[in-house]
Structures are given as C-alpha cells and as structure tokens.
Amino acid sequence: MIVDSGAITVVVQTLVIASACKPFPSTMIKDDAGIMQTTDPVCGMQVDISLALWKTEVEAQTFYFCGAICKRTFDKNLDKLLDLERLKKKRQEDQIE
Asked: For residue 2, what pLDDT is reported?
C-alpha cells in the first residue's frame, strides 16, 4: 500500500478546520458492555477511555484521542479550540441571563 503524505496532510488539515469550527463534544458515555467511552474531539471517533493511550488535560478536563495524529492536531490547535469553547460557554451564559 502506498501512502501519499500530501493527502494525509490535507485530511488532517480538514479535520483541524472542521474541529476549529465545531469541536466534537467530549461527553462520557457507558456502552452496552459497561465500557466508558468518550468522543475524540478532533475526528469524532468513540474512544474507550480505559484503553486510550493518548490524552490531554486542559483546565481540569481530560480529552481522549483515537491516535497520535488527533492528539497532536488538538494540542497544536489548543488555543483556537479553547477560545471557541469559552465563547460558546459565554454565549450560553448570556442566553440564561
């Protein structure tokens, strides 16, 4: 199998742009087998938190990732993603008031 690194870069950049516009929520769920899972905030894949090798802790919240590329993408764009999360939270607070 031949892998075109340019194509991979485009896919990762697309994920970054999509994530920056609308990050996947990082809610925890328990599946039918009782396994705690969460959503990778970059690609949206379900991640078993007990087996997750990649994670990042930010402001008392742990984000779990399906792989090293998603973790690296998240870490590299952390400021943008956090700014968006803070903006969403502020908008929600403003709507409540």
From this structure: 52
